[in-house]
Write a structure and sequence with these properties.
19% strand, alpha+beta, two-stranded antiparallel sheet
């Protein structure tokens, strides 16, 4: 062990007459620990919200949407889908039809978004997350005079319906008849109920077969509202959309899951930066405690510094000695803060301690997702701040005149 480190460790072990220095040292360690733990928990909270929203959104929506010019319906969707399937990065292509309706059952009415999908088992695996009641076989089977309908849990609860019951849908855009514009009305039978965990989806969306959606929306058999694409790299959605625009030109328009949810993720990114800056002030305040601790140590150990200088210790030795003391305080506080922050983040997420209103936040609890890169960044920043805090006290100790320190001894 180097002499500087040996002496630094000895100085941090307070004797009875140095109790004040010991208390201030403990407070410095606790300050660094609190700052590091708070920062890890805050970043885990932000990462949890971002990853949870991202997972929920991608579990029920496509990565890239392709529409007709100006967002209009797609003509001849079969031919366009075949061409889109050859675009680099695209893994799945599915036509869909969207419409709005007022659902009625048991004397209750609820507005809903009707989504028409291809009644294929592979498509249903993606479109129906978290099946709670019923089977998807009823959705693909034919023979019932009422088309099948799959409801979100919150929407089914609001209508007080379960599997096998019928629901009446009234289209918000009616058909033109000799008597004027008449509302489209269709009766559906509930085939299944799902829960995605995203309140907005569970409370507003209903799935029906593609052909039934075309009839209900007044579209031709060759038309679709848009074509949904799944891609291999979800973060490359913007690049895939750009390639589609280059290849197909003005005959199509596109949107991506990143564009549709840009306000949400931009707000989370800004919040992460703000939290990092705000809570970093705690570590900064703790570093001031390190400064005061070392200044007290210099005042207390003036005679020792003079003796070591008289025995051959130069200014670099004294500087390294007190910088090591501050670094030990910073590292100890950082390690303890890491342990506390990691443990708290795991506990809060595993046991879902903080509950939320799904109607407001779309998720039922506050998620905490620990990122080891965030832990590393926080730890490095905390140690660097602690090291910087040692510069002035170490400089002051190195400039201490041994003759003046020993004059009255």
């Amino acid at each position: 062990m180097k002499l500087e480190l040996f002496v630094a460790l000895r100085y941090l072990k307070a004797r009875r007459k140095q109790a004040v220095v010991s208390v201030v040292t403990a407070i410095s360690i606790l300050g660094v620990m609190a700052g590091v733990a708070a920062l890890i928990i805050a970043l885990s909270l932000n990462a949890g919200f971002q990853s949870e929203y991202e997972a929920k959104i991608l579990s029920v929506t496509s990565h890239v949407n392709v529409m007709g010019p100006g967002g209009r319906a797609v003509e001849d969707y079969d031919g366009l889908a075949a061409r889109l399937s050859g675009v680099d990065g695209v893994t799945d292509v599915n036509p869909v039809v969207y419409g709005q309706a007022l659902l009625q059952s048991n004397g209750r009415e609820e507005p809903a978004v009707l989504k028409g999908i291809v009644p294929d088992p592979e498509v249903l695996k993606f479109a129906v997350p978290g099946l709670l009641e019923g089977t998807l076989d009823h959705f693909t089977a034919s023979g019932d005079r009422f088309p099948p309908l799959i409801l979100g849990k919150e929407l089914a609860d609001a209508l007080v319906v379960s599997e096998g019951e019928v629901v009446r849908a009234i289209g918000l855009e009616g058909a033109i008849s000799p008597l004027g514009r008449m509302p489209r009305i269709q009766t559906f039978r509930v085939a299944a109920i799902f829960e995605s965990g995203l309140w907005e989806y569970d409370s507003k969306w209903a799935l029906i077969p593609l052909d039934a959606a075309q009839r209900f929306s007044g579209l031709l058999d060759s038309q679709a509202s848009n074509i949904e694409l799944l891609i291999s790299d979800i973060y490359g959605a913007t690049d895939v959309a750009a390639r589609i625009k280059d290849e197909f030109g003005p005959m199509v328009s596109t949107s991506t899951w990143i564009e549709l949810n840009k306000p949400l993720f931009s707000a989370l990114k800004l919040e992460k930066l703000a939290m990092f800056m705000a809570i970093s002030l705690i570590v900064f305040v703790a570093s001031l405690n390190i400064v005061s601790t070392l200044i007290l140590m210099v005042m207390e150990k003036g005679r020792d510094i003079a003796v070591m200088s008289a025995m051959g210790g130069d200014r670099r030795f004294t500087t390294r000695l007190f910088m090591l003391q501050g670094l030990i305080i910073g590292i100890t506080g950082t390690v303890l803060g890491d342990i506390l922050g990691i443990t708290a983040s795991w506990y809060l997420n595993a046991f879902r301690v903080i509950k939320l209103e799904p109607q407001v936040y779309s998720i039922p609890f506050v998620p905490f997702h620990l990122s080891w890169s965030d832990v590393l960044i926080v730890s490095v920043v905390a140690v660097l701040i602690s090291l910087i805090a040692t510069v002035y006290p170490s400089w002051a100790a190195a400039r201490l005149n041994p003759v003046e320190a020993l004059r009255y001894e």
